[in-house]
Design a protein that fits this description.
single chain, 206 residues, alpha+beta, Aminopeptidase, two-stranded antiparallel sheet, 9 strands, binds coenzyme A
């Protein structure tokens, strides 16, 4: 349906939390990394803030990327529009201005993206609680993977978190998502096997 699995509802789910402490002298490295090798290779791919009008394209991207998400819960249009207005939200997209391609809307219909408008090829939702910066819902379209785009988005997020004074960046990865685990380890995140993820939900499926 919306992804390969719905891990939040799966029995025995064992999320993994990873954190990365930013040393003071690492800030300069982050700045150059966010501009780094990809900027040279993919000049036409720009990192921009997500806007409310991007909602449908973002859901389509998550679907095509095979990322599980909650279209009737915290990823619903209503809730996402609420989140986007919060000062704690750093929701970023990578747009490829080179291509115009067929796009599948959230409800499954096909449409053409107008030439020149650009195509959303990657997304990351950054949130921060004043203590830590959280990396959520990172996804890159299959055709754009292993080219450093995911890294570029995360580095840009880390740069913005660091500017806010945050020194710890963290993400939660489902235990089945071995690729994501490898990717975040490559980005310098440390796995904490001694931490359990607990939630309490006001409403089921949120
Ligand atoms: C995870 C994901 C976002 C990675 O995006 P990407 O653009 O392909 O990643 P990058 O090219 O920036 O790679 C970053 C690093 O991870 C490594 N890497 C990328 N894909 C990898 C893979 N499949 N296996 C092992 N390492 C991998 C890269 O070699 C790179 O390492 P380096 O900096 O040492 O060269 C992408 O695979 C994806 O969208 N997956 C589906 C959605 C998902 O699971 N999201 C994560 C939710 S927590």
């Amino acid at each position: 349906m919306w992804g390969p699995r719905n891990p939040e509802m799966a029995p025995g789910r064992c999320p993994v939390r990873m954190t990365s402490k930013l040393r003071k002298d690492g800030l300069r490295q982050l700045r150059s990394a966010s501009k780094g090798k990809i900027a040279g290779t993919f000049d036409a791919i720009r990192i921009e803030n997500i806007r409310p009008s991007d909602y449908d394209e973002m859901l389509s991207l998550w679907e095509r990327a095979g990322l599980p998400f909650k279209p009737t819960g915290r990823d619903s249009r209503k809730d996402m529009l609420r989140q986007m207005r919060l000062p704690t939200a750093l929701y970023l997209k990578a747009t490829d201005y080179r291509t115009a391609e067929k796009n599948r809307g959230a409800s499954g219909e096909k449409k053409m993206v107008a030439k020149g408008r650009g195509v959303m090829v990657a997304v990351v939702l950054g949130t921060q609680d004043g203590r830590k910066g959280w990396v959520n819902r990172l996804a890159v379209l299959p055709g754009y993977r292993k080219k450093g785009l995911g890294k570029r988005l995360v580095r840009e997020l880390e740069r913005r978190f660091a500017k806010m004074g945050l020194g710890i960046f963290t993400c939660q990865i489902e235990d089945w998502n071995t690729v994501s685990l490898k990717v975040f380890k490559r980005l310098g995140y440390q796995l904490h096997k001694d931490i359990s993820y607990l939630t309490k939900r006001r409403v089921k499926g949120i």
